[in-house]
Amino acid sequence: MKSPWLVAFSVTLISMMELLDVTIVNVAIPSLMGSFGASVDEISWVSTSYIIANVVILPASGWLSAWFGRRNYYLVSSILFVLASLGCAMSTELWQLVAFRIIQGLAGGGLLGISQAIIYDVFPKEKVSTGLALYGVGVMMGPTLGPSVGGYLIDEFSWHWIFLINLPIGAVAILLSWLCVHDSINEKRPQSIDYIGFALLALGVGSLQIMLERGEHWDWLESDLTIACLLLGSFGLLAFFWWEQRVATPIVNMALFRNREFLMGSICAFCVGFGLYSTLFMVPLLLQTLLEQSAYQSGMVIFPGALASAVSTLVIGKLSQENKVDERLFVSIGILIYGYAMYLHTQFTLQSSPDTLYWPLIIRGLGLGMIFVPLTNLAMRQLPAQLISVGSGVLNLMRQLGGSVGIAIAATLLTRFSWARYRQLSEHVTESSIIASGWDVARYDPRVLSLGTSDPAQAQALLVLVNTREQAQMLGFSMLFGLLGAVMLIGVPMVLLMRNPKRIAQPEQEALPCSNNSRESTQA
């Protein structure tokens, strides 16, 4: 019997590598544009294609694991991910890079969905919280390390290394997986392949993800493309839910959502993804655009918060294992701490230094770290063993979708909030306010000198424009941070709607049918 800790380490390592690739590419956009001679719009598909492939495969990962066997599916996905990373690094054309990113996303999504289920299998029930804590460290640290690791590799080497770094990490993870990961005794091979379900799932989730990724560029509902994606996504998902309740061997067993804890946990996971990924998008953007930090420097500012999240996750995992405190309390406190951290984020100004950002980011990390393990336990604890793999995939999908929605909303509202504040501030710019602000000596300002103008009036006008725009952008960031905190607080009532695990009758775990066949036979 292999050590469960070695198994947990191996699946955590490869999951962290997969999530690292979600954010590491973002800092390489300028380098990729130069190498491939592509526009921002064209190069953005390098990131978009990966995320779309990821979310399409996540809910199906449990079914695929049962069909091919967990060990085979996990090893093949790991090898494909590493080989696709090598293909990305060797790409000479943009279409090649996008194609390899799609393969990366399809392989990586399967790994992410199954890793959590593996931990549930190898750890005894009383110790599964500590195993999840280690896995949670990887989930939290992976996307957070992306900007700093990517910035360092690009500054010191080239963009190719953001993909080549996966090779040694992946080789170690594949070796450990080959030694440690085995087929699950709780998974039974489906009797047939649900081709229609696969097609509807890909259509629904894929169209929705494309809309979220490209919506801002298409000007949302002003574009026929956005409306088409919305209609296709809505049709695909509604048809998928209808079909999966009628097919004998569904890809996603709809019985999952008849469990109150799993349903509420999925909504909370969506909110957690919303808060995690949107702030990972917003904070580096703030640091690089308004506080003049490089990608690597902004990553290092965020890093202490990631460490705080890791420590918090491990501590809460240990406390959850002891089962002395209601886990709903941990999740609720974590959400409230995150909300308080977002309030501190609203106090950032143009005069804020990176040093003043550390504590709000550390507090945010502590809050997020308190949520992962107890929320996963609350959502998954009442599921029968046969549905753990499918439930894990769906829970990860909800977190990823929450992140996509959060980033899409954040990017759109930041522009709108900033323009609204710019118009408001512009109304109050007068000759007296210019003198009071010291803008009457604009020609000596380094930002104006860099433009090469010597006309005092023109220099003054330029400085007023620059300062007003920067102040408006900072106010836009502040409003958005407040909104992110408010959205995250929606998770509190969802947690309170969950029942206390200690008061739920144990036989209820067997109440969920594992397939539509079993449900029909029960009804008969």
UniProtKB/TrEMBL annotation:
Coiled coil: none annotated. The keyword Transmembrane helix applies. The chain crosses the membrane at residues 43-66, 73-92, 98-120, 132-154, 160-181, 193-212, 224-243, 263-287, 299-317, 329-345, 357-380, 401-419, 474-497. This is Multidrug export protein EmrB. InterPro entries: EmrB-like, MFS, MFS_dom, MFS_trans_sf. Residues 7-503 form the Major facilitator superfamily (MFS) profile domain. GO terms for cellular component: plasma membrane. It comes from Pseudomonas wadenswilerensis.
